[in-house]
């Protein structure tokens, strides 16, 4: 469904992403892992359109996204969360969701009528998302006032509010405890059960190995392995990549 | 302190506060544009005045009634604001903020020259409303035309607040100003929000220009520099990016200006206003409502 074809991105002379091809299937939870600096974040930014690839293309259900602006990709069904949370801090929880739900509908036709219509953050979809994220009691609070965990939940809810086909999660477990990670895993499965395909970038190996259907491993911008969690864990190249000066090897073996 | 001095003082203060609402509008315009783009548009005051000249054109050519002239001034300034956006901001590289800043300085000079050319550098009569009427509160006389200026500026601010806090457009604008990247990923076309912000700021500036001219009954191209400088002083005092700050800053500058006028005369007035600016820049560079909030 989401495919990357021979995707490369050069920054000056550095190949941040080097000829990466991936196919993520409808309805799966796909993990993208790799040591720090291996090109995971660049890959996400290529998919969402912050960067344009030097070569290669990104397609969603056969539609070529490569030349589209970020907001156009959102309307095609791509949504993401950020490693460092980026909420609209001075808007309320419900308004954060409303912006995401309606942002991509603001097209040329009738935009005046829609843009000047008052209220609106009380739609049934928003109520449902608030319940799904257990933020219903906080709906009229400013996003700034939420706890860290609540902010992470709101960010995921906001990504879901644009009604995406594929959701890109950029290290959602960063800063989370083991317990939180457990809840997060359930939440990610619940997202998948809503019919949203998930691309998960994560350092916490336990989480990745536990919930993904398939995994791809990047190292120095290249894809060095792809397969089921079990296959990837047995892969010699992957072990070598993580052994190459990183403590993460331990996590990989014991996960 | 004798009674008449106190009366003069209160009179100056009242006049200054009423007229200060035009400065507040200009300050809000600067702040709005800075809020969504994090860039300063130095052509803003000149664009506002150019819009006022559109209204003046209708007045001189068709002898249009005052309200039509004011409305045309506001809409004209909104459209010129859009032109400024496309010429100086839309296509200048994001990574070089200096490019758009210098482009806007160029636009400021261009617009000033245009207005000087069209008006032959001469002041022209501009319609005012209620110019004969006065409201007498004891020994304090409030000029009707100033009261009208105040009323229109307050209505403009109220409309802006309604737009920003009660409409989807306002939500989108605030979202872009808080997190431009996340807003784009929510599907908001930030270029369109930026363009609309220039139009809205332009309409406010045109209203301020029209009311400045209506308060004195005369429109002159030399006001452009004054509007720009006063607007910048207002945002420095209020804190760039803060709308309440711009309102308080505008009233403060309006009041201070009139009191310096009373105490030191017209030739020294602006010297003291500038001193006030330096005082703020030194002691409180973030302004009254300056926020330490960061974003991308």
UniProtKB/TrEMBL annotation, chain A:
SUPFAM superfamilies: P-loop containing nucleoside triphosphate hydrolases (SSF52540). Pfam families: ABC_tran, BCA_ABC_TP_C. Keywords: ATP-binding, Nucleotide-binding, Transport. Residues 2-245 form the ABC transporter domain. One of its GO terms (molecular function) is ATP hydrolysis activity. CDD domains: ABC_Mj1267_LivG_branched (cd03219). SMART domains: AAA (SM00382). One of its GO terms (cellular component) is plasma membrane. PANTHER family: CONSERVED COMPONENT OF ABC TRANSPORTER FOR NATURAL AMINO ACIDS-RELATED. This is Amino acid/amide ABC transporter ATP-binding protein 1, HAAT family. It comes from Ruegeria marina.
UniProtKB/TrEMBL annotation, chain B:
It is a multi-pass membrane protein. One of its GO terms (cellular component) is plasma membrane. InterPro entries: ABC_transp_permease, BCAA_transport_permease. It comes from the Bacteria. GO terms for biological process: amino acid transport. It is found in: Cell membrane. Keywords: Amino-acid transport, Cell membrane, Membrane, Transmembrane, Transmembrane helix, Transport. The chain crosses the membrane at residues 16-35, 42-62, 68-89, 140-165, 195-219, 231-260, 272-293. GO terms for molecular function: transmembrane transporter activity. Belongs to the binding-protein-dependent transport system permease family. LivHM subfamily. This is Branched-chain amino acid transport system permease protein. The lineage of its organism: Bacteria, Pseudomonadati, Pseudomonadota, Alphaproteobacteria, Rhodobacterales.
